[in-house]
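Why does residue order matter? Because the sequence determines the fold. Keep that principle in mind as you read this record.
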Amino acid sequence: MGLYVNPGNEEFYNASLRSKIYVDKTEMIKFTNSQLFGEHKNICVSRPRRFGKSIAANMLVAYYSRGCDSKELFEKFKIAEDAGFEEHLNKYNVIHLNMQQFLGRTKTIDEMLELLTRKVTRELKREFANVTYYEEDLVSVIEEIYSQTHSFFVFIIDEWDCIFRVKGNDTDAQKIYLNFLRDLLKNQPYCVLAYMTGILPIKKYGEHSALNMFDEYSMTNQRELAEFTGFTEQEVQELCPAYDMPYEKMKQWYDGYDLKGIQIYNPRSVVMSLLGHDFDSYWTKTETYEALKKYIQMDMYNLKELVTKLIAGSSVAINPDKFQNDMTTFASADDVLTLLVHLGYLTYDFDTRTVHIPNQEVQKEFINCIEDGGWEPVMDAIRKSEELLNATISGDEDTVARIIEHVHQENTSILAYNDENSLACVISLAYYSAKKNYMIYRELVGGKGFADLVFIPRKTTQAPAIVVELKRNQTADAAIDQIKRKEYVQSLKDYRGEVLLVGINYESKDSDGENYKKHFCKIERMTIAPV
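Structure:
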């Protein structure tokens, strides 16, 4: 048993049986077993930090490594129920590499690869002492082992992309590294499975698309591995009662990563919340995200408007396919927003090809990002949002109209003023604080059409529901009439209790055709009686 060659199962044992909270993800082994020796044996999984990448890697090491006996360990988990459980258990030579550890101990890529080669070949020669070696490079050593013993290898490589995050501008170093991985893994008969984890998908450089043999599972498409990317709804629903924590609030804070229809929670944050018995932003800021602030605050590629829409709760369309899979090559807003998806600050809807902010925890990070400099109108709207919500609930029509008019006018430099979608975005921004107690929907189907904005109270609050209709150059009364005539309150479905009908109209020009921008509000109350 070595550190890199045929390691033991201690890391997975500590993360699972010695951990206070462990969610069983061992059924992922069924998937990797199905890929052994096959055309799709090379797997690259990219996820944000703190989404269980290392735990999954250590699980595979414990399962495949000949350096330990893990039958008793895995018999406690779901994978033991699979018919093929014992077929591949501890049957292969495993080489486990954490690239961050090697990079952190060296200054150049050449030094890093030399250290890695020296450490691993030393263990290989000790493990296979009867093999005759003719060359010292890592690939040659493994080739001799295979040719003389017909031994198969499983490669588990964690933090594979650290080169691209730490040495983002050193393309020469990156190409040397990609060539090293290509020579080690591509078309090699000794490799029966290669499983790499990182934050970024695989970087490609023209003819250096050297790792195109890998199937990629990223935050824009996790494919078969979606349920293993974080905690699922069912898993969190089972955890919350055990720790006497409200599920609805857990969902509000940490849910929201949509992986082709599967809702995924941030696992690190859920665990910290359960253990601390509170709700907070456990996903601390990183240097990477701080670096991106300059692109947002300089308003490159019209990012200020897009980020404002995201903060307001809107979705933004992107094309993730042109992203170069690094942290320095940005040619459009799509590239920056796609990077934020891979970092976990946005979630990508595969079907609509749009992104949005996943949950309240990440929302707070965006607010922290824009709080300093250049975003005063947006921050002013957020600060006034509590007053606006209170005025709405109390029926103070003049105050509601005044605050919305102020927010609308102050943000004309960011959003197109006379565009109705932009008005809806401004309204959502103006009601920012309502997100704490409401689920807010735009264009929600109900009755005989689509309500512009619907505020459905969370189960943890006693606040009234709110249905908002927006008009331009008409009247606030006309907005109220439309809510009633088209029966938009039916969008509330199972809700019972008080409902506020809010009509908002703004006059874009006065009688002389000059810009006017006057806002009006009408609020009526009704009650949906219990069945």
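Residues 227-374 form one domain.
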